What we know:
The protein has seven helices and no strands. It has 186 residues and is an all-alpha fold.
Amino acid sequence: MWPLGHVAIAYLCYVVATRARFDASPAHFPIPVLFLVVGSQFPDLVDKPLAWYLGVIPTGRTLAHSLLLLVPLSVAVYFVATRYDRRECGIAFAIGALSHSIVDAVPALWGVTESATHLLWPITSVEEYEQGPPTVLGLLQDSLTDPYFLSEFVFAAVAFVLWRRHGYPGLGAVRTALERVRPAAN
């Protein structure tokens, strides 16, 4: 799945989680939404550079996609966030990171990929690249006819409509941060 799809799925999961726990929308949790976004991208931000550019792990879905790393990391982020009275930020990060890895395993259920062994790497082995790491353009070309890839746009549209309905939670905090670092106009 691509970054847009991961953040969309994570946001939809967070909508369900906040409704179930607080009977509220993510609008009440703007800063945790930012942790959700970071969590939803975390596995790829770690694994892709380590595999594609540094070659220290076998594929772009191993170390940070493994539940053996993500579960303890999510627990640690939760405890650190709780220590700073930001418990919901830890929960949001965990939802983003765990949804990322689990959604990447979905094609294995449909038989599109051979396995979801990345979920338990390094206990289970993953298939290394045959001809070196892929390129982003190559991956995009391979994805254009894949229904799974196309479904990401549906999820993104639904997530965007909900995010808009919720008042764009997180956007205000980003704007405020950018205004603080932007040099004053002369």
